[in-house]
Amino acid sequence: MPDTTSVAVLGTGIMGAAMARSMRRAGLDVRVWNRTRAKAEPLAAEGARIADDPAAAVEGADVVLTMLYDGSAALATMRTAASALGPGTVWAQSTTAGLDALEPLAAFAAEHDLLFVDAPVLGTRQPAEHGQLTVLAAGPEEARTVLAPVFDAVGSRTVWVAEDGASGAATRLKLVCNSWVLAVNNATAEALALAEGLGVEPQGFLDAIEGGTLDCGYLRVKAAAMMSGDFTPNFTVTTAAKDARLIVEAGERAGVRLDLAAAGAERLRRAGQQGHGDEDMAASWFASFPE
Questions:
Q1: What letter would DSSP give residue 133?
Q2: Taking a C-beta distance cutoff of 8 angstroms, is the pair 80, 100 a contact?
Q3: Residue 95 in 3-state DSSP?
Q4: Residues near 120 by Cβ (< 8 Å), separated by ≥ 6?
Q5: 116, 89 in Cβ contact below 8 A?
Q6: pTM above 0.90, yes or no
Q7: pLDDT given for residue 3 in this prediction
Q8: Contact yes or no for 23/151 (Cβ under 8 A)
Q9: CA 166 → CA 98, 104, 140, 215, 255, distances in Å?
Q10: Are 262 and 249 spatial neighbours (Cβ–Cβ below 8 Å)?
Q11: b vs e for 234-246, b when ≥16 Cβ sit within 10 Å of the residue's Cβ?
Q12: Strand pairing of 29-33 and 6-10?
């Protein structure tokens, strides 16, 4: 596909805005929409066109990419855009929607003759800003050529896991990956909280495991945020709590009991209730202490 591929990005939060910027750097024609327009407007300086509503954003686009809070938001937004969606338009659905929500999304795509690609991504703000996400994708062969410049712009790697987006193969893999991400984040928070409670220097814990099999790059990233008190959001507590619930629900649906995921969901819920919902999920550290 030429570098004039047109992409409508619906949802310009932390991830959607960063992905739109990466697309613009790659020379793609990008139009964006966000429920709160102020979050989309800074992208005009990057050359993106700001749309007043989802229908205006998607009209004539080769690709529609949704990066919204959850499946319900994605479906509601696409319904609003329905009148402007052309048959054969490629829809890359990147919202972490969960398995139950994926089914009505795929049904909407079939109803409107869209090429549906289940395309969640791995990574947070920094890799998104640098076009270094990993795209987990499931969708038909004919959509892949159209999507190549888009996925190449936002990610360093695309992993195609199935030819049917409606199968949920990519979403299932994303939930498995996120279960690990959330477990590491919450375990780091608890270890550092316990260190504080026992009068142990947190750095002493990190020094003790340095370079060994217990060490972990992501632990280091989250520990640094917790120790510095810098909770600038890369992946918010509120969004992490939502994903944790989706993981637990997916486990229940599969007959798999996920005790740690359920405890992590409660921990994140508690941190949000304490007023940290818009901060990075490293703020789950606060859930170890009284309000």
A1: E
A2: no
A3: coil
A4: 94, 95, 96, 136, 170, 171, 174
A5: no
A6: yes
A7: 52
A8: no
A9: 12, 9, 10, 38, 21
A10: no
A11: bbbbbbbbbbbbb
A12: parallel
In the chain, beta strands by DSSP E: 6-10, 29-33, 49-50, 63-66, 90-93, 115-118, 121-122, 133-138, 155-162
Q: Which H/E stretch holds residue 222?
A: helix 217-228
Residue 27 CA to its chain's centroid (Å)? 23
Q: Is residue 276 a contact partner of residue 283, using CB atoms and an 8 Å limit? A: yes
Phi, psi values for residue 66, rounded to 5°: -105, 130
Residues 57-93 as b or e (16 or more Cβ within 10 Å = b): bbbebbbbbbbbbbbebbbebbeebeebbeeebbbbb
Helices (H), 135-216: 141-154, 169-198, 202-209
Residues of the chain with confidence (pLDDT) below 50: 1-2
Q: Which two tokens stand for residue 131?
A: 């076009």
Distances 137 to 48, 142, 150 between C-alpha atoms, Å = 25, 13, 12
- The chain-wide mean pLDDT, for the chain, equals 96
